[in-house]
Amino acid sequence: MKRKTNTPEVYTARKTSKAVTALGICAMIAVSSVSGFAGGYLWSRMNEDGQANNKTSQVRNVKTVVSNDLSEVVDACSKSVVEITTESVASGNHAFGQYVQQGAGSGVILTEDGYIVTNDHVISGASSITVKTSDGKEYNAQLVGTDSVSDIAVLKVDGQGLEAAVVGSSADLEVGETAIAIGNPLGSLGGTVTTGIISALDREIEVNGETMTLLQTDAAVNPGNSGGGLFNTAGALIGIVNAKTSSEGIEGLGFAIPVDEALSVAQELMENGTVKNRAALNVSLYDTDQGVMIVQVLQGGAAEQAGLQVNDVILSVDGRKVSSVSDVKKIIRSHAPGDELVLNVVRGENVQAVSLKLGTAS
C-alpha cells in the first residue's frame, strides 16, 4: 500500500515597489573551533520512507508587510527564524578519548509542516540536531539533504502550523537597500535583529575551500548566525547567511547566499537528497607551487575518459588561466554536464591540450 503524502506550500513574494524592495539581508555566520555556525526553499517534500515525492508544490503569493516601522517587519519575519544546536562525537587525545562536541547556528522555516533551510557547515558531522522555534518549542530535526559546495542543507521537524518565511527574490536586489538580519548570535541569543544595507551583490568569497558568489552586508554578524535569514523591508527572505569576515580594525563584512541560488539547491535536496545536476571534472585537485595538480582521477569519470592523468598540472581551463583549485572550480561551475571544453596541462616536460566533456558530480 502506498503511503499518502502531502505537498508543502512555499510562501513567495516579489518586490512591488522601489520602497518595498529595500532588502533585508541578514548576513550572520561565523565558524568556531568547536563547531561550525550557520545557514531555502522547497518545491516538493519527502514521504514517510524518506523518498522524494516527484510532485512540486504550487507557489502562492502572500501579502507582505509594508511599514515605515521596522518593528512590524521584524515581528512578521522573526517567527520564521529558528535556533539550531548540534551535537557530534569528536576524538580527543589518549587521556580523554571521545567526547561530545556542541555547536550552534540558525535556520529559516520554509513550510508550515517543518522544512527548514540552514548551512551545510552548521550541521556537518552532527549526530543529533535540535531546532528551537521563536515560541520556545524544541524539536528533534532530521537531515533531508545537504550540499557542501553551495553550503546549503535542508532539515525536517515534526511540526504543523509553523511560521513559514515569505520568499522574495535576490535578482531584484540593489546596492544600498536596507538589510535586516535575524539569527542566533553566539549560540545563545536567538531572535537577535541587526540592520544595515546591501553593500555588494556579487562578492567572490572563499568559504571552506569553495569560491562562492555572495551578497555582502554591513549588518552586524556574529558566531551562531550562520543559516539565518536575510530579509528586506517588506519582510521577504532574500538570502541565507553563511559567512563573516572580521579582523583587527575590520568589521561589518557579512556575506549571504542569494535566495534564488539557495532555493535552487534546496529544491534538488528535497527531490533527490543530494545535488545531481552539477558539472564536474571527476578529479581531486591540489594547489602546488607549480600549479593546480591532479592527485586523483575518478574511474570512468570525465577526466579519465579524456585521458587526463595523476600528476598532470592544469594551466588553463576553457581558455582561462588558473592558479588555484578555486579558479578551476569556479570555471567548472559555470558550465553544465555535457559541455565540452579544453584544458591545457603540463605532463612531464610537455604542454598538452586535452579536450573534455564534463561529467556530473558523484
Give the helices and strands, then pairings:
Blueprint: E1 11-12, E2 60-61, H1 70-78, E3 81-91, E4 98-109, E5 115-118, H2 120-123, E6 128-132, E7 138-147, E8 152-157, E9 166-167, E10 178-183, E11 192-207, E12 210-217, E13 229-231, E14 236-247, E15 250-258, H3 259-272, E16 279-280, E17 283-287, E18 292-297, H4 302-306, E19 313-317, E20 320-321, H5 325-333, E21 340-347, E22 350-357, E23 359-360
Written overview of the protein:
- The chain is mainly beta.
- The protein has two domains: 11-272, Thrombin, subunit H; 279-360, Pdz3 Domain (Roll), CATH 2.30.42.
- It is 11% helix and 40% strand.
- The protein is built from five helices and 23 strands.
- The strands form four sheets. A six-stranded antiparallel barrel has the order 10-11-12-15-14-13. The protein has a six-stranded antiparallel beta barrel with strand order 3-4-5-8-7-6. Strands 17, 18, 19, 20, 21 and 22 form a six-stranded antiparallel β-sheet that branches.
- A hairpin with a 2-residue loop joins β21 (340-347) and β22.
- The longest helix is centred in the last third of the chain and has 14 residues, at 259-272.
- The chain is globular, with a radius of gyration of 21 Å.
- The two termini are 33 Å apart.
- Residues 1-67 have low confidence and may be disordered.
Strand tally is 23
Summed over residues and divided by their number, the pLDDT gives a mean of: 78
Globular, elongated, flat, extended or rod-shaped: what is the shape?
Answer: globular
Structural class: mainly beta
The CATH architecture of the largest domain can be given as: Beta Barrel
Q: Helix segment count?
A: 5
Strand order of the largest sheet: 10-11-12-15-14-13
**Low-pLDDT residue intervals, each spanning 5 or more residues:** 1-67
